[in-house]
Design goal:
The protein has a domain at 4-148: TATA-Binding Protein. The chain has 2 helices and 7 strands, in the order ββαβββββα. It has helices at residues 34-49, 113-213, and strands at residues 12-18, 21-30, 54-57, 63-71, 79-89, 92-102, 105-106. Strand 1 (12-18) and strand 2 form a beta hairpin. The longest helix is centred in the C-terminal third of the chain and has 101 residues, at 113-213. It is rod-shaped, with a radius of gyration of 41 Å.
Length: 214
Amino acid sequence: MMPVVAQHGLPRETTITHQGAVRPCLVSELDFKPAHLLEAWEDYMDDTWDADTDTEDFMHDDDLVIARKVNIDRITSKTMDLYAAAAREDQVTRFYVFGALGYDIYVDPVASPVEFAGMKAVMTKFLNQALPGLMDMQTKAMRKKLDDLGDDRDDLRDDIEDKEKDMAKLRESIDADRKKLQGVEADYRTMESAIKTSERQNAKLLELIGTRVE
């Protein structure tokens, strides 16, 4: 089976600015949250290389994970500092790894090609080990979101159905009230006509009575 990392972007050479200068670096472009990648990297450094890590603020307000004075024989027989950073850029997460063999002596594909190849192997191993778990986490999160959306959809459908039923009942009630209104309006007109007729008759009667009294 093809390694997981091969399906998502092998580490490639790039540069990164660290401590005021441009440094050689490896980067892999992935579709996971930066925090999840860095958490997995810290676990990998602890489990595989027995290395403690700490963090510093870095670019874009993201964290820089640092393993200081660690022994990673896949890279070098000497102690070194190994750095990892992750940032969401242009709809993709860029995961960076770079290292220093001493003060201002960074692992370089030209000046230290063996160490740089070892760093690439360490990063590739991490990606192959970590990505299945990250994929599973991502899939579970997406399925949870899908379930939540499904619940929202069902609730809205039920709400619409209830309101449509209420509207149907309301329309029936309106229709009944309109029929009642027609009857009331007819009674109103009849009564209005009767009053006018009564007033005319009363006026004539008063006129008649008045004439006879004279």
